[in-house]
Each structure stands twice: as C-alpha cells, then as structure tokens.
Amino acid sequence: HPMPVGLSLSPQHRVYAGFAVYSFAMGNIFPRLPDIKEAMGIGEGALGLGLIGVPAGTLISLSFAAPLLERVGFGRALRALIPLIALLYAVAVHAQGPLALFLMLVPVGLAIGCAEIIINVEADRTEALIGRRIMNRAHSFWSIGFFGAGLFGAAVAQLGLSPQWHLALVVPMVLAGVAVFLGGYVPAPARPAENGDAAPRFARPTAAIMVLVAVTLSAMLMEGASLDWSAIYMRSVFEAGPFLSGFAVAAFAFSQAAARFFADGFVERHSPSGVARAMLCTMAAGLVMVFFAPVPGAALLGFALIAIGTSVIFPLAMSAAAQRTDRAAAVNVAALAQISFVAFLLGPPLLGYVAEHWGIRWTFGLGLPLVALSLATAGSLGHRARAEAAA
Predict the structure, then answer these.
(1) What residues contact 63, with CB distance under 8 A and at least 6 apart?
(2) Are 86 and 145 spatial neighbours (Cβ–Cβ below 8 Å)?
(3) In this structure, what are the phi and psi dihedrals at residue 191, rounded to the nearest 5 degrees?
(4) Could you please report the per-residue DSSP string of 39-97?
(5) Which pLDDT belongs to residue 355?
C-alpha cells in the first residue's frame, strides 16, 4: 500500500471534510449565474432549461452507478470524482447558449450523482462504526462548503474575473483540498445488515410515503430555488452588484449550516413533528420577507430564514420512512428519496419560467401554498422525541 498523504483525521472528520470539499467544488457556479445569464442574453426560463442538465445526469447515476462504485472502490472513486466535478463545471461555463449548457452539464450531473451516493453511504456507515448520529452534522459541512463557494464566488465576481477564469481557478483549489483532507481516506466498513438485498431500482411509493413526500416538498423546492435563483433575484429586484448578488447564496448556505450543525441534539429533545412545524413556520416567514422585501437587507434575512426552515425537514422525513414497519427500511427510504430528489433537482430550474412570466419574486411566493401542504402533513413525522422512540 502506498503511504497515505494528507491530514490524519478521525473517520467522522474525514466524512465532514469530504462533504465540505465536494460542495465547494459544485457551489461556485451559483453566485455566477447572473453573469452567465447576461453573457448568453437569455431569460430565466431558458437558463432554467440549461440548468436541467445537472439533474438529468444526477438522476441517471443515482439509479445505476452504485454497483460500479462498489467495484471501483469508494476511496479511489471519491478522490477522482470531486476534482472531476470542478473540472466539468469549468468546461460547462464555456457554453454559448442554453442547449449547449444543458449538454455540458449532463456529465457534471453524472459525477455529482456518483459522489452523492458515496458520501451519504459513507456518513451512514461511519455512524454505525462510531455508534452515534452524524448525518445532520455531515450535511452542515456540505452547507459550510457551499458557504465558502458562495463567498469566494461573490468576491471573485466583484473583482471582475469572468465565470470561465473563476471556475478554472477552482479546479486546483479543489485538487489541493482533496489531497489534504482525503489523501489518507479509507472507506468505512459496510454495515453488517448490508447484504445482497439492495433496494429495488425504482421503489414504488406507498400512500404513507406520499404523505412524507408532501412534508418534504416545500423544503426541497425552496432550498433548490434559493440556490439557483437568489443571486439572480438580488440582481433583478435591487440591481445589486456582483458581491451582494453572490452573497445571497453564501447567506443561505451559512444559515443552513448553522441550523444543521445543532439540529441532532434539538430533534432528540423535541418531537420530530413539533420541530418540523417550527421549521416550516420559519420558512414561511422567510418566503414572505423575500416576496415583499423593500430593501436588499430584508431579502438577505428572508433567505437566511428560508435556509433555517429547510435545514432538517428532509432528514426528519427520512428517519420517519426508515422507522415504518410495512416494508424493509431500505425500500421506504429509497421511495421517499427518489421522489423528493426529483422535486429538488427538477423543480427549481423549471421555476425559471415562473420568474420569466410572473416576475422573480413569485419564484418564492409560490412556496407559500407548499408550506401550507407540508404543515398539514407534518404529523406523519411522529410525536415522540427520537431518544424516547429509540429507547
């Protein structure tokens, strides 16, 4: 075996670093979307169609890539995939129009789907290895990486560097991050229960799972909408400069990171449905602020509230799906993940048409009826605190 390079980290810290470097690699394009849209001379609807390349690729690899990744080995695959995501984004921003952007983003999506499988399975296996929950905290490091990308992207945009040079600059930064944090990465052992009975390729949702989908819908759509459209919202509504436009992405990611970092302990003390209702009300307040914001500061505060509101709804629903006894946990989790992820990936780019025809504020105003639906179904998450349920 070659000598491992990079920092010597504990298994959970290695997972946290993996989440952060991965999200930094994929997050730098979002603060630059206003510049990309202007350079192409297109509306929000056409830009949204171009951006669908990423979910198209992601859904393909989420469906088919897992057996291949197990064969290649998670360690080797992840060390290659994270720099590859940065490189493919750097190539994609050279697209001259929305169709070219779509076609050049499909390979990005394929790589993201593979990385998504590896880091989430790693987080789950590391939980089993160390005997405590780290999933929410791991996702908080994903948000921290995105915050770094938003801040860096906003600063570079303000300096006047083109998106093409900016994303080219990200590639060596990501390579360095992978070498330092993932150089000595050894994948966690598979859980004892992970035998050959994998979840089916498409897990049919039951009525109970569809209720959980309704709980997650507002959070998934509004998280994606905030990442895709917040910078363009700031530019369109307030004619904000490059830094302030990009900072909306960073403010969202920072608030989500903070909420996720402390979420595990909070959920253990209170009932899942109670926590979800508090989060949904926070999200609704944020959506109202963004919809009516008279000044940029109010909009940034609105995005921060949306971020806090969306932070833990999906993990709570995943726990509720796993705890159901009508089918194998893996099948219920897969059914919920597939449908919610489709909404998360496909919904936000399509909101570009809402922005183009009704105005960009409606991209977020449309979230309010979805929050009402989530509030109406939040009881399905369960009323006991998780610690009590575990006991």
Answers:
(1) 201, 202
(2) no
(3) -65, 150
(4) HHT--HHHHHHHHTHHHHHHHHHHHH-HHHHHHH-HHHHHHHHHHHHHHHHHHHTT-SS
(5) 92
| Confidence at residue 199, expressed as pLDDT on a 0 to 100 scale | 54
Give CA–CA dist 218/234, Å, rounded: 22
Distance CA 135, CA 119 (A): 10
The structure tokens 């302990």 sit at 265
* DSSP designation for 186: -
Residue 5 pLDDT:
56
| Residues of the chain under the 70 pLDDT cut | 1-6, 193-203, 384-391
Q: How many CA atoms lie less than 13 Å away from 93 in the CB half-sphere?
A: 27
Contact (Cβ atoms closer than 8 angstroms) between residue 359 and residue 233 = no
How high is the pLDDT of residue 186? 83
Residues 6+ apart with CB under 8 A from 325: none
Q: What is the pTM of this model?
A: 0.87
Find all residues with CB under 8 Å of 172, minimum gap 6, and list them: none
Q: Cβ(289)–Cβ(298) under 8 Å? A: yes
- Give the C-alpha separation, 277 to 313, whole Å: 9
Alpha helices in the chain, H assignment, sequence order: 11-27, 33-40, 44-51, 53-64, 66-72, 74-92, 98-130, 135-158, 163-182, 207-238, 242-261, 263-269, 272-292, 296-310, 313-323, 329-358, 361-365, 367-377, 386-390
The pLDDT assigned to 391 comes to 44
**Residues with Cβ < 8 Å from 130, sequence gap 6 or more?**
11, 12
Query: What gap in Å lies between CA 238 and CA 293, rounded to an integer?
Result: 10
Using an 8 Å Cβ cutoff, are 316 and 297 in contact? no
| CB atoms closer than 10 angstroms to residue 78 | 24
Amino acid identity, position 25: A
For 137-154, give the secondary structure using H, E and C: HHHHHHHHHHHHHHHHHH
Q: CB under 8 Å to 281, separation ≥6 — which residues? A: 309, 375
What DSSP string runs through 272-293? HHHHHHHHHHHHHHHHHHHHH-
Q: What pLDDT, on the 0 to 100 scale, is given for residue 386?
A: 46
Distance CA 48, CA 44 (A): 6
